[in-house]
Amino acid sequence: MSTQATEAAKGAPNAAVDLHFEERGGGLPVIIMHGLFGSLSNWRGIAQSLSANYRVINVDLRNHGRSPHAPGLSYEAMANDVLAVMDRLGVERAHLIGHSLGGKLGMVLADRHPERVARLAVVDIAPKWYPPWHKDVFAALDAVDLQALESREQARQQMAAHVFEPEVRAFLAANLEQVDGQWRWRFNLPELKAAYEQTSDMPALSGFYLGPALFIRGAQSAYIEAGDEERIARDFPQSCIVTLERARHWPHIEDTAGFLDAVTRFFAHGCQDFPAHPIG
């Protein structure tokens, strides 16, 4: 374990850990940050597509995927984790893509360290507090009997009483792994529970990031609503919004072509293709 990871394990405030990541392609760097309960595997298809023109760095956030389990899930600590990856790879500035939890992280990174962020793409999340919409997910995860579990399919069945959407159950079950014949979650479930109120909130932003910021929302999602554009414009003065009509909370999966078109045009031309407009 690195010195940084050791400090984090001892509880040093906001100490960085060594994130697991995958890197591919060449050119301007793009860092991808997944959402709560996710991992970099959810973004491999997007990373592969973008790697034709960019150096894509796809990360597992702390307490997710194959990154270290460490105390705390504050946005400041997660920002330090990403900055440590950038420093390790010699990346001075990068485009950021962040989905949901990763989108809030991207906003904090851009606000606290604007000199490190070239362009910011935020996927289906606004800079605001959210109610506890994931209580059913935590209940579903707790319903999985890891000691007696025989397969991911059995886990999906055990979650069905709390999470009705098959695709969500499949997304969660993908985080199961077997070690020495025993099933376990890759993510750090106790830490995600403990930090849930904190991650549902939004740290105060200072409006220091004056670069282009694209907010991509799913038309069938409730995460970015009418009225949020005023808050977005306040915190990110050079922002714009694009709505993908066929998408819900996972636009990169539900409308991959539309998502890639929006992101590539934004990285090439900034917000000029996406004038700010009310959400309706």
TrEMBL record:
The keyword Hydrolase applies. Residues 29-200 form the AB hydrolase-1 domain. InterPro entries: AB_hydrolase_1, AB_hydrolase_fold. One of its GO terms (molecular function) is hydrolase activity. Pfam families: Abhydrolase_1. Keywords: Hydrolase. Transmembrane segments: none annotated. This is Alpha/beta fold hydrolase. It comes from Guyparkeria halophila. The lineage of its organism: Bacteria, Pseudomonadati, Pseudomonadota, Gammaproteobacteria, Chromatiales.
